[in-house]
Design a protein that fits this description.
7 helices; about 35% helix; 6-stranded mixed beta sheet; 10 strands; binds adenosine-5'-diphosphate
């Protein structure tokens, strides 16, 4: 809900991003604007190559734009040191990708504990939150399984638990169910959506799945390097 008294969790302002390929310059983002309000979920729907991943990487401070400013909770981020950007990313942003990137030699619960312990939480606290989250996502009986001992849908639910373990201000998801069959995708998205609604997370989720997009609060696309609101 846009409320003048609130500050957007993420505000991308006049964002420009171009890639040089030999002599050619590919202008991916050309003055893109996007403000996402606390608790809002936004689906980003655009054809492959339109710049969805680029936009998410910039919003998550993984990439620097060539122009414009990224405001997180109202604070500009372009002048921050790499260390400060890394700290914000660890504490305030959660990422879910199409591939899960879980650590293969660690169990489900350990994978979810890891970011919390990196942040400085005690082992017992991290474990208790990891167990709670995984149980919430329907993985109570899979806590000690390693990624290879989990199905694709289960692995992706562990990745979701890991992304939200530090209670991020902003969750960024890049086609999080893109690798899953339709039924598993529904199931994983259902769990994610329930978590989003229950915890009031602010989310930007790139997807090709129109049913998933329809269940978000807003839908936007990228056209000619700009973000456009969809009806
Ligand atoms: P999407 O996520 O919508 O598929 P991307 O953000 O991944 O789109 O990419 C947008 C465009 O920018 C594509 O044409 C892609 O080839 C190009 N691109 C992305 N990253 C790079 C890079 N590091 N170097 C050169 N071109 C890139």
């Amino acid at each position: 809900m846009a409320d003048a008294a609130q500050t957007p969790v993420i505000f991308l302002h006049a964002i420009e991003r171009r890639y040089h390929q030999g002599d050619a310059v590919l202008e991916v983002l050309k003055g893109a604007e996007l403000a996402v309000w606390p608790g809002q979920s936004v689906a980003l729907i655009a054809p492959s190559g339109a710049g969805k991943s680029t936009l998410l990487q910039i919003a998550g401070l993984l990439e620097q734009p060539d122009g414009g400013e990224v405001y997180l909770d109202g604070a500009p981020t372009s002048g921050l040191s790499d260390a400060a950007r890394t700290r914000i990313r660890r504490n305030a942003v959660g990422f879910v990708y199409q591939a899960h990137y879980l650590l293969p030699e660690f169990s489900a619960v350990e994978n979810v504990m890891m970011p919390q312990m990196i942040r400085g939480l005690a082992r017992a606290e991290a474990q208790s939150r990891a167990v709670e989250l995984l149980s919430y996502l329907g993985l109570k009986d899979r806590l000690t399984h390693r990624p290879a001992e989990l199905s694709g849908g289960e692995q992706q639910r562990v990745a979701i638990a890991r992304a939200v373990a530090n209670i991020p201000r902003l969750l960024l998801a890049d086609e999080p169910t893109g690798n899953l069959d339709p039924r598993t995708s529904d199931h994983v998205f259902g769990a994610l959506n329930q978590l989003i609604r229950q915890s009031g997370l602010t989310v930007v989720l790139a997807t090709h799945n129109m049913e998933i997009a329809a269940r978000m609060d807003r839908r936007v696309t990228i056209r000619d390097g700009q973000v456009l609101e969809l009806p």
